[in-house]
Amino acid sequence: MSLKGTRILKGINLVVENTVALLYGTNGSGKTTLIRAISGLIPYSGSIKINGKEVRSAKNLLEYSTNLPEVYFIGNTVLDTAKIVAELKGGDLREFLELVERFGLESKKVINKPFYKLSTGERSLVTLSLALFAKPRVCTLDEPLENVDPQKREKVIRVIRERVKEGIIVTHDKDLVKVFSGTPVYTMIEGELFEGIKV
């Protein structure tokens, strides 16, 4: 895959089925670019399929979800966005509010804010709540612990374990890799994918 004439991803071949795969790598290795391509946010060459449907022709896959913030710039406030997601994906808005509270945020304080007025920590937890409350069949999570207060990390990990049964979790955090021991792990280095942890 190339962006602005620069090749970012090189010969990626990955199949994730009925499991969660961890994608480990340093910042700038191409992890988020891959998730953005899977989410149909950027053009790509080759084939990316979710449940057998090519992403290019299935951007409204209701069974897929991600925590990438740009997916949720669709409402004036967090609550507006949650209502749209609930309507599109059949989620229960009460579950969204419950997740926000489980993550240690006061829902009444964050739901009426526009995204740009959330702190980085709040934004991470709100987008994760938006990604998970409708119980997607397939999910990609980009750095779900980034900017999350240490005292809230265990809550986040617990919810991810409960709700993400198939998909990809991107991280540069080796501690998260240890938490999900037994899960398939891949490392991305300069746009190339390798099985296992590579340093």
UniProtKB/TrEMBL annotation:
Concerning Pfam families, the annotation shows:
ABC_tran
Alphabetically list the UniProt keywords: ATP-binding, Nucleotide-binding
Q: Which Gene3D superfamilies does the protein's record reference?
A: P-loop containing nucleotide triphosphate hydrolases (3.40.50.300)
InterPro entries for this protein: ABC_transporter-like_ATP-bd, P-loop_NTPase
- What GO MF terms are annotated? ATP binding; ATP hydrolysis activity
Q: Give the superkingdom in one word.
A: Archaea
- Domain ABC transporter, chain residue ranges per copy: 1-199
**Which PANTHER family does the annotation name?**
ABC TRANSPORTER ATP-BINDING PROTEIN MA_4021-RELATED
Q: What is this protein called?
A: High-affinity zinc uptake system ATP-binding protein
Organism of provenance:
Sulfolobus acidocaldarius (strain ATCC 33909 / DSM 639 / JCM 8929 / NBRC 15157 / NCIMB 11770)
